[in-house]
Amino acid sequence: MNYAFFQLLGLHFGTNFIRPYNNTPYINKGKELAAFTEKEYINSHEGDVHMANRWAEFLGLKNWFKWRDFEDVPQGYAG
Q1: pLDDT of residue 79
Q2: What CA–CA distance (Å, rounded) separates 62 from 53?
Q3: How many CA atoms lie within 13 A of 24 on its CB side?
Q4: Which of 61, 50, 57 is nearest to 32 (CA)?
Q5: Which residues of the chain have pLDDT under 70?
Q6: What sign does the CA torsion over 45, 34, 6, 23 have?
Q7: What is each CA distance from 67 to 3, 4, 7, 13, in whole angstroms?
Q8: pLDDT score for 49
Q9: What pLDDT shows up at residue 23?
Q10: DSSP labels for the chain?
């Protein structure tokens, strides 16, 4: 996930932030995450939700969280 984040950030700023990740055992998964994110991402709330779900599916984490409507967040949750 870090590789994908820094790859995409580097593309945005024209800088190579991924050099430290080049020798990690998960580089291929990071490259795949970055590639489909760059190709499929839509810059909107719905796009963020879709991409979070897409990453979770790809990484086998889709059962680690559940989306809630704003109205369903318990009162006092934010502090």
Answers
A1: 67
A2: 7
A3: 15
A4: 57
A5: 79
A6: positive
A7: 25, 23, 27, 31
A8: 94
A9: 86
A10: -HHHHHHHHHHHHT----GGGTTSTTHHHHHHHHHHHHHH--SSHHHHHHHHHHHHHHHT-TTS-----GGGSPTTTT-
Query: Which amino acid type is present at position 61?
Result: L
**Alpha-carbon distance 28 to 7, whole Å?**
12
Quick one: tokens of 78?
A: 């934010």
φ/ψ bin of 16: left (φ > 0), alpha (ψ from -120 to 50), beta (otherwise)? beta
In angstroms, the CA 62 to CA 60 distance is 6
Predicted local distance difference test score (pLDDT) of residue 64: 95
Q: Which of 16, 32, 67 is nearest to 6 (CA)?
A: 16
Distances 63 to 5, 47, 56, 67 between C-alpha atoms, Å: 22, 19, 8, 11
Neighbours of 36 (CB within 10 A): 15
